[in-house]
């Protein structure tokens, strides 16, 4: 997704899809990386809490609120932001008796959301090298300014994005984004990373998520926090794994904060959920 027509390339977002999904799934939902044109709604504040819209309780305000809920939220692209949506490879998933699926690495176990799943290293390393090369290319396109590149991902893509950022040999990035995902136990936190390359880490977890539940996902993020990382955790009640409406809201919020595009434009919560899980009918609930 190239910058909006007529705007100069200023920033790049690299976002990694979840297990069984593809980067192309996001092309039908470009608003994930746009900004909302809607007026005030439920916004996420500095502490990761939603800001409720104010009302004096009058009949007029209630009627206006009901009308607002019926309006479809509108979005437009941020000027100057390029979005790169790479795709993982096909793997004969060991945990599923060789059934082929798209992803960033091959699972060897499936603990059904009770703890982190193990994976095969070769597929992981191959894709990691691709992502590092992609970061090199995007930073070069921005004149070598690594602080203008954000890397993030959803579910399995979140784990891969965090690992790629922490093992990247180049300069410090604008930020790291993670939706409904976690830090892998095998992801290193290099000595001096926080002081030399530290960047804000934006994390979004649904409290109804039984694939990546907060009970073991939060301790995984705390490992980064305890090392001095700037981890900013947002949790939301009632949000399950693969909720596409909230994933879109989280992606937009991450872009706003990573590039400091104005707190007042932080994303609104859409008035109605589609009730779908995942970005397409082909996406499964898997980390």
From TrEMBL:
Keyword vocabulary terms for this entry: Hydrolase
One GO CC term on file: cytoplasm
Keyword presence, Hydrolase: yes
Biased segments, Basic and acidic residues type: 44-59
InterPro entries cross-referenced by the UniProt entry: AB_hydrolase_fold, LYPA1-2/EST-like, PLipase/COase/thioEstase
GO molecular function, one term: carboxylic ester hydrolase activity
Alphabetical list of SUPFAM superfamilies matching this protein: alpha/beta-Hydrolases (SSF53474)
The Phospholipase/carboxylesterase/thioesterase domain, residue ranges: 78-242
A Pfam family of this chain: Abhydrolase_2
Ranges where the record places region Disordered: 44-77, 265-287
Residue spans of biased composition, Acidic residues class: 67-76
PANTHER family (UniProt xref): LYSOPHOSPHOLIPASE-LIKE PROTEIN 1 (PTHR10655:SF17), LYSOPHOSPHOLIPASE-RELATED (PTHR10655)
Family the entry assigns: Belongs to the AB hydrolase superfamily. AB hydrolase 2 family.
Protein name, entry field: Phospholipase/carboxylesterase/thioesterase domain-containing protein
Record lineage: Eukaryota, Sar, Alveolata, Dinophyceae, Suessiales
């Amino acid at each position: 997704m190239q910058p909006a027509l007529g705007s100069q390339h200023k920033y790049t977002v690299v976002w990694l899809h979840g297990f069984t999904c593809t980067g192309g799934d996001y092309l039908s939902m470009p608003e994930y990386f746009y900004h909302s044109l809607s007026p005030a709604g439920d916004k996420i504040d500095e502490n990761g809490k939603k800001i409720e819209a104010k009302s004096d309780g009058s009949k007029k305000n209630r009627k206006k609120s009901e009308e607002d809920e019926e309006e479809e939220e509108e979005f437009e692209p941020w000027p100057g932001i390029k979005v790169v949506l790479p795709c993982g490879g096909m793997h004969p998933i060991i945990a599923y008796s060789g059934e082929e699926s798209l992803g960033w690495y091959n699972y060897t176990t499936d603990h059904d959301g009770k703890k982190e799943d193990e994976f095969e290293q070769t597929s992981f390393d191959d894709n990691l090298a691709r992502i590092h090369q992609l970061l090199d290319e995007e930073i070069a396109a921005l004149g070598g300014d690594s602080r203008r590149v954000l890397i993030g991902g959803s579910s399995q893509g979140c784990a891969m994005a965090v690992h790629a950022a922490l093992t990247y040999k180049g300069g410090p990035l604008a930020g790291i984004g993670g939706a409904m995902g976690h830090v892998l136990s095998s992801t290193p936190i290099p000595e001096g990373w926080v002081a030399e390359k530290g960047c804000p880490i934006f994390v979004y977890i649904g409290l109804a998520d039984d694939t990546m539940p907060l009970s073991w996902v939060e301790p995984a993020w705390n490992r980064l926090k305890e090392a001095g990382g700037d981890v900013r955790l947002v949790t939301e009640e009632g949000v399950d794994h693969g909720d596409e409406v909230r994933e879109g809201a989280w992606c937009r919020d991450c872009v706003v904060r990573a590039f400091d595009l104005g707190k007042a434009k932080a994303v609104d919560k859409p008035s109605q959920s589609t009730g779908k899980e995942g970005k397409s009918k082909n996406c499964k609930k898997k980390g």
